[in-house]
């Protein structure tokens, strides 16, 4: 009798998992990788939250938070060791969670008034060396400086970044890599001796293809953010979650096996449909607005339900995104710090319910209930 009950429960669990996989193949979470001092707390979060909530994809922004052997000069001062990474990988494997490490390529080579490690160590890779980092950063500014980019045509840049990519994907025992590539405002700069005058869409597409082709040599997938592939003017989405510098034309120049992470935060724009009809697998990515996240989940499930058999696989799932390190997120998630009138990124006043941690809870509460529906 007990054995029969065990078989019934096990079969029920399998069917529930199969149903969830059918509704949302990708159920993701994206956040910065922990520092070594926060490793145990992060592993606890995997075991107590991500695993039980049926998250199956963990996008970790590693950047230079790893003790690279190929280029130790690019390591952060406090960085994860190979042993630390193995602990993360083992914790994730218990729950069949695939980790996809991210290093920001092309754009996001600086933040505010601070250069990130690549351009700090290799200033010759800078797309806009004439733009100096300000002591007191403000936006907007006369230089149009949001984040620096590396020059995609510099003859030495890929030897360096691909060594990092190969090392980090091996360390995380993964078959996928996230290259970032969002919010690229500096590309094809007129003063660049290599890129000046070139078509920005062709430059962007060329960099995507170069990274994708390198990964394909070892059977790995490329994931990127999708904003640069959307026409910000025609859609009315604007310059942040879409492009106003003509990179959007690159969508017709890149391989269809690139996975698109479609972040649309302020409203549930129907951009996932655009990517899917263009032939790409697309993951809808909310951030800090629970109502937007709920609509995006419904949209993804509905799209998979009504799409043709050719397009259905392109509606790949959803992934919650967090734009801080784990510590601020955990502090909010576990109620360690009071929610103030400021947004989670500190830039604007918002409803106190509109936080990344509340959005994550609401989003995965809904996903958890999907298993229970007949």
From TrEMBL:
Matches recorded under Gene3D superfamilies: Glycosidases
GO biological process, one term: carbohydrate metabolic process
Domain of life: Bacteria
Keywords associated with the record: Hydrolase
GO terms of molecular function: beta-N-acetylhexosaminidase activity
A Pfam family it matches: Glyco_hydro_20
Domain Glycoside hydrolase family 20 catalytic stretches: 75-288
Family: Belongs to the glycosyl hydrolase 20 family.
PANTHER family: BCDNA.GH04120
Name the UniProt record assigns to this protein: Glycosyl hydrolase family 20, catalytic domain
């Amino acid at each position: 009798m007990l054995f029969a009950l065990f078989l019934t429960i096990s079969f029920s669990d399998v069917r529930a998992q199969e149903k969830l996989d059918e509704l949302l193949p990708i159920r993701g979470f994206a956040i910065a990788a922990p520092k070594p001092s926060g490793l145990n707390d992060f592993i606890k979060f995997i075991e107590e939250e991500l695993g039980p909530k049926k998250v199956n994809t963990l996008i970790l922004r590693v950047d230079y938070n790893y003790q690279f052997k190929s280029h130790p000069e690019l390591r952060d001062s406090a960085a994860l060791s190979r042993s630390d990474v193995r602990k993360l990988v083992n914790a994730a494997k218990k729950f069949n969670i695939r980790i996809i490490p991210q290093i920001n390529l092309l754009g996001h080579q600086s933040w505010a008034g601070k250069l990130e490690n690549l351009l700090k160590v290799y200033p010759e890779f800078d797309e806009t060396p004439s733009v100096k980092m300000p002591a007191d950063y403000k936006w907007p500014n006369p230089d149009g400086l949001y984040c620096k980019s590396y020059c995609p045509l510099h003859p030495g840049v890929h030897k360096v970044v691909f060594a990092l990519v190969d090392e980090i994907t091996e360390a995380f025992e993964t078959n996928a890599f996230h290259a970032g590539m969002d919010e690229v405002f500096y590309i094809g700069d007129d003063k660049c001796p290599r890129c000046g005058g070139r078509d920005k869409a062709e430059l962007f597409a060329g960099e995507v293809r170069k990274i994708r082709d390198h990964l394909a040599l070892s059977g790995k997938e490329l994931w990127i953010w999708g904003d640069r592939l959307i026409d910000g003017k025609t859609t009315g989405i604007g310059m942040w979650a879409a492009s106003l510098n003509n990179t959007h034309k690159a969508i017709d120049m890149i391989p269809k096996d690139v996975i698109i992470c479609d972040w649309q935060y302020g409203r549930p724009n129907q951009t996932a449909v655009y990517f899917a009809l263009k032939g790409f697998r697309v993951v809808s990515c909310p951030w800090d607005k629970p109502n937007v996240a709920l609509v995006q989940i419904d949209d993804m499930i509905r799209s998979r339900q009504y799409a043709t058999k050719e397009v259905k696989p392109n509606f790949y799932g959803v992934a919650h995104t967090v734009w801080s390190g784990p510590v601020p997120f955990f502090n909010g998630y576990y109620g360690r710090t009071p929610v103030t009138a400021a947004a989670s990124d500190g830039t604007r006043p918002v409803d106190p319910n509109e936080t990344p941690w509340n959005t994550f809870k609401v989003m995965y509460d809904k996903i958890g209930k999907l298993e229970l529906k007949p």
